[in-house]
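Weekly modeling sync, notes
Attendees: AB, CL, MP (scribe)

Item 1: holo prediction request
CL wants a bound-state model with zinc ion before deciding which constructs to order. AB pointed out that an apo prediction alone won't tell us much about the pocket. Agreed to run with the ligand included and paste results into these notes for async review.

Input as submitted:
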Amino acid sequence: NLYRWLEGGFSLVEEIERGRAELEPAQSSIKVRVEREKRTTERVSKVRFFPDTWKKFYLDWMRNLKDWCISRQIWWGHRIPVWYCEDCKEINVITDDDFDRAYDKIIFNLIADGKLENEFTPEEIEDILRSPSFVHPHMTVLDFYKKFAFHRYHSTEIDASSLRLFFTQETNPMALLTPGVSTRSLYRYDPKKKKWRMVLRCGKCGSENLRQEKDVLDTWFSSALWPFGVFGWPEDTEDLKTLYPTDLLVTGFDIIFFWVARMIMMGTFLKEDVPFDDVYVHALVRDEKGQKMSKTKGNVIDPLEIIEKYGADALRFTLAALTIQGRDIRLSEKRFEGYKHFANKVWNAARYILMNTPPDFATHLPYMASLRPEDRWIMTLLGETAHAVDTALQNYDFSSAARSIYEFLWSDFCDWYIEFTKERIYRPMPEDEEERSKVLSEKTAALYTLHYVFEKALRLLHPFMPFITEELWHRFPASEGESISLTDFPVKKEEETFPEDREKVDRLKEIISAIRAIRSDLMLE
Ligand SMILES: [Zn+2]
């Protein structure tokens, strides 16, 4: 019950302020008063922010919390379940917890939410329960209640037509003889109007002369309940137990106070734990000159057009690559083009490998013995890249992660390693039996490394380019399972790390590059 927060916890305390003039009840407001406790301060400061600069900003605000007016005079929002007694001025908080039976709870909620007038016919209720839910248009109002509000009350037995029966039974004098089913004290029938009324009484004086608060809850008050509300809170559901608290919230800086801080407040108070460990504050996307995108300026980049032109993978990779913590993204169309080339490069690498793979390839895997320095070199780099990508992702450094996998695939794998393998892959088969088996073994070692490293690289690239990697992964004979998403993320392995070979091949690369540079200086070919 949100309004009875009088004891303990984070101490959001109910306080109802009357307006200065009794004649203007609309001016009255409901506030949450702030009190502080040490353990709460410790809890709320354990949330990590990325970039870290936002943490100070957030903590400053939390330390200087002001009372929060949670009632709003707007049309949209959750109605506040407060009824004022016109006779004794008592402020009554009534919730569905005050009713035992599921039908009563439903009817009360319909009335409290303003969906049903408190003068109704059973048919009206039935119509509302059968109508589409506003929140989930594919569900009826009743389905929504059953799934999200009343799942604990054997709600499978509730249906709209039996609800009508519930009232017919009441008008039937025989019902009086059935113990325990009487709703007589809760509903009153007006034979003239042929309508029912749910009887709500003042808790203090028993008067029925009540007036419901007209204000609705501040949007951010409702949104603050989201981290646990969606999992069936206040019930201790399996989902809630498993999924609260969660790891990460991704959001924009402009709602750190409105939403993030309030989710943390509510979670700390009602669930005794912060709702998430990490908050990632994402960048804003601006145009290449750093201007905000707007339709009037005409500098808007439409993601759907970009996907059409360059592919969804290029769009996703571009945004990841340009996402540097604490900085806005300056976006231009040229960027997407660059990463579309990258996607093509990866595709062509896969083609090269698969075109040179014999159909019975899998059986050749044990040839690993004859690896050459360049094979061990690329394996070492694969491990280093896996480590770099993983570390960057742990720190939500998407740009570094994207850069590492990009450089590995584009430069190390495609430009160098594939070139190194061509000599073995394209070597003609000798006539001589012994020679032949040696060449085949070397070729297989190259192919094995190509397959092994490329498949792992696809997994590293998968979070950034999900479509192309999934597509290619299924074409590789070593891929086992339903989806690349379900494979393990590669890790650096000591037994696949060869520092000497890495150094040797790096030196060779330098020499080759130097020769190429000289050649191009001398314009030789
Ligand atoms: Zn009263």
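Recorded for review: The first helix runs from residue 38 to 44.
Action items: CL to compare against the apo run; MP to circulate these notes.
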